[in-house]
Amino acid sequence: MPIVKTKQAIDDLEAGNVLEVVATDSGSMSDIQGWADGTDGVELLEQVEAGDLYTHYVKKTE
Length: 62
Fold this sequence. Notes:
The chain is of the alpha+beta class and about 60 residues long. The protein has one domain: Translation Initiation Factor IF3 (2-Layer Sandwich). It is about 30% helix and about 35% strand. The chain has two helices and three strands, in the order H-E-H-E-E. It has a three-stranded antiparallel β-sheet with strand order 1-3-2, with helices on one face. A hairpin with a 2-residue loop joins strand 2 (about 40-50) and strand 3 (about 55-60). The N and C termini lie far apart (about 25 Å).
């Protein structure tokens, strides 16, 4: 589900803005990385694991 919500949120942003995604699913680390790698117009800036939280910073580039 993090991918679907991330895609929806990114669509609402203007180019240059950064979206912070916080998830509790460890699989989001690879899921969001793969999604960002295969999606034009987005760049995964950073991923942070802190206990049971996984935070992803995704920039809309176009």
